[in-house]
Amino acid sequence: MTTPWGELELARFPDDPRDRLRAWDASDEYLLQHLAEREEEQGAGLSGTVVVVGDRWGALVTALAAQRPVQITDSFLAQEATRANLDRNSVETGTVHLLTTQDPPPDRIDVLLVRVPKSLALLEDQLLRLAPAVHEGTVVVGTGMVKEIHTSTLQLFERILGPTRTSLARKKARLIFCTPDPSLERPANRWPYSYALPDGIGAVSGRTVVNHAGVFCADRLDIGTRFFLRHLPAGRGARRVVDLGCGNGVVGTAMGLANPEAEVLFVDESFQAVASAEATYTANGVPGHAEFRVGDGLAGVPAGSVDLVLNNPPFHSHQATTDATAWRMFTGARRALRPGGELWVIGNRHLGYHIKLRRLFGNSHLVAGDPKFVVLRAVKR
Ligand SMILES: C[S@@+](CC[C@H](N)C(=O)[O-])C[C@H]1O[C@@H](n2cnc3c(N)ncnc32)[C@H](O)[C@@H]1O
């Protein structure tokens, strides 16, 4: 990436040389260009505590490393990418302070740079958490691709921080300028949000589910997840179970309730998701053992150590990326399972997961299906 201060070498995480997707976009470039122009006009760079929220792969904090910024992210993959990108560009560890959306934010913020996240709820929650640290003199600049910035996005800045306007579009990216008004009466933060699950979904029927902002399907049960909950494996006995890509943890909690001897490991790359899963599990007083881990799929789980993996792979985002993620999750499951162990997957029928499972496991069995979804089971031989 060419920045006003020089060239950077950047990659996504996990770094896949076949992956032709860049680790930055025009909205990162536009923001950096704006900051450089501002510096030139004012004859001084950014000063005080610089906070960068939602930096996708660490391009912003790597470019701004001289300001010793604080990065706040919900994504473990983004944090890993940032670490690797800082290293690639010889920025010393510790120059950038890496925080997650679950950490207490800094007390005082002098420059707030926001890469608009995909989830409006996450933006709302983050702005509300950061607002007390923002003062009249805080420079607030948001950035995103034109298609990611809606009236509702601008209204959030306006309602939580103060008067807001946007720049002209440049290479399909746009900036958001906000003038903080500390006297503004901010709305209460509605996150985390809990609701009661419906009946007819097995062990979690009528139970509570807790959702931090930004988790998958945070305000209602996803219809695919609902179908999965109705067809989870039965059977008791001590079993090491992984809820892979756990989101709010409803699937692993259902397994724990149905089978008190189960030890459930909840894994997700989202800090908000893992916090939600822990809260859901605790709220339901599940009797067994559980572990909650933020990470990339099953990385770090010993080979042959798991009896059962339950997975509702991510979809929706960039097709190439999501397909690769499902593939990596299935590959990881095969490695982590003991011989005879099983991977259970829910997916949209049209995604054709059975082809992937057959290639990897040599088998794929249909557990249940409706016109939209299938639950598939693959056995490690
Ligand atoms: C479709 S959601 C399923 C959530 C939950 N299991 C459910 O059924 O409601 C997929 C989840 O996978 C997570 N995810 C995406 N990439 C991941 C990765 N590399 N490692 C772990 N989790 C990941 C997402 O954060 C998301 O919570």
| Low-pLDDT ranges | none
Count of alpha and pi helical runs = 10
Hetero compounds: S-adenosylmethionine
Mean pLDDT across all amino acids: 95
Provide the domain count. Answer: 2
Largest β sheet strand count, sense and barrel closure: 7 strands, mixed
The percentage helix is 25-40%
DSSP E strands, number: 18
The secondary-structure element order is EEHEHEHEEHEHEEEEHEHEHEEHEHEE
As a whole number of angstroms, the C-alpha radius of gyration is: 22 Å
If classified by CATH, what would the architecture of the largest domain be? 3-Layer(aba) Sandwich
Distance between the termini: 46 Å
Largest sheet strand order: 5-4-3-6-7-9-8
CATH superfamily of the largest domain: Vaccinia Virus protein VP39
Structural class: alpha/beta
CATH class of the largest domain: Alpha Beta
Q: What's the CATH topology label of the largest domain? A: Rossmann fold
Question: What would you call the shape?
Answer: globular
**Beta-strand percent range:** 25-35%
Q: Could you please describe the fold and organization of this structure?
A:
With 381 residues, this protein is α/β, with parallel strands linked by helices. It folds into 2 domains: 2-178, Rossmann fold, CATH 3.40.50; 193-379, 3-Layer(aba) Sandwich (Rossmann fold), CATH 3.40.50.150. It is 29% helix and 26% strand. The protein has 10 helices and 18 strands. The strands form 4 sheets. Strands 5-4-3-6-7-9-8 form a 7-stranded mixed β-sheet, with helices on both faces. A 7-stranded mixed β-sheet has the order 14-13-12-15-16-18-17, with helices on both faces. Strand 15 (306-311), helix 9 and strand 16 (337-348) form a beta-alpha-beta unit. It is globular, with a radius of gyration of 22 Å.
